[in-house]
């Protein structure tokens, strides 16, 4: 007798019950991913002023305005730390700069990019990202308010409207890992991600 005659082929066949449970859950995940883009803002993200001017040579004044506004927002609303090491813990080695005002000194991450709104160049915003692999902000766009906006990439995309929210007086000083924890908790608590990432 051949050995293959003793094999129970029905046991080896894939079960339709298994598939019937998997397919609906995959559909829910796919739908959830597409719904997270609701309320997104169509923008173009640039790393530098020069990138914007190269892309739009006839709109260099608009690029300059958008960049200057984003830089001012980064300085006014960006995350602040008392110690450079604490800032670098969230954003990476060499990614922070010293700032001072009224005899106070603090450290802030460099602006990683800026978003210029498709419909109105005056609606621009600063974007931050971490180069430290273990940070929850690694290769993700994050707003000055700590909202994770999506994967870090440049060019045309849709960002959450949270990117354009800047609370006046939001000058909290963070300690080591504080801004990263804030952003991670906001992402867990509800949808600061948007499509396009």
Description:
With 197 residues, the protein is α+β, with helices and mostly antiparallel strands. The protein has one domain (40-190). It contains 6 helices and 10 strands, in the order ααβααβαββββββββα. The model is unreliable at 16-37 and 191-197 (pLDDT under 50). It holds the Pfam family DUF1190.
Largest sheet: 4 strands, antiparallel
Report the structural category. Answer: alpha+beta
Domains, number:
1
Unreliably modeled segments: 16-37, 191-197
Give helix and strand order, one letter per element, not per position: HHEHHEHEEEEEEEEH
- Helix residue percentage: 25-40%
Distance between the termini: 59 Å
CA radius of gyration = 23 Å
Count of individual beta strands: 10
Mean pLDDT over the full residue set: 77
How many helices does DSSP assign?
6
Strand content: 15-25%
Shape field: extended
Strand order of the largest sheet: 6-5-1-9
Pfam families: DUF1190
Keywords:
197 residues, alpha+beta, 4-stranded antiparallel beta sheet, two-stranded parallel sheet, extended, disordered C terminus
């Amino acid at each position: 007798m051949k050995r293959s005659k003793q094999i129970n082929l029905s046991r080896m066949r894939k079960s339709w019950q298994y598939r019937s449970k998997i397919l609906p859950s995959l559909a829910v995940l796919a739908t959830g991913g597409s719904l997270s883009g609701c309320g997104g803002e169509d923008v173009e993200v640039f790393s530098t002023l020069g990138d914007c001017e190269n892309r739009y040579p006839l709109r260099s004044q608009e690029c300059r305005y958008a960049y200057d506004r984003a830089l001012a927002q980064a300085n006014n609303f960006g995350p602040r730390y008392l110690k450079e090491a604490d800032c670098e813990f969230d954003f990476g080695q060499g990614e922070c700069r010293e700032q001072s005002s009224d005899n106070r000194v603090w450290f802030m991450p460099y602006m990683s990019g800026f978003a210029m709104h498709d419909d109105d160049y005056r609606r621009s915003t600063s974007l931050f990202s971490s180069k430290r692999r273990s940070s929850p902000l690694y290769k993700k766009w994050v707003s000055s308010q700590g909202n994770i906006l999506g994967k870090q990439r440049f060019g045309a995309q849709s960002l959450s409207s949270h990117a354009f929210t800047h609370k006046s007086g939001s000058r909290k000083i963070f300690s080591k890992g504080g801004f990263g924890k804030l952003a991670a908790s906001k992402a867990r608590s509800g949808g600061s991600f948007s499509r396009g990432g």
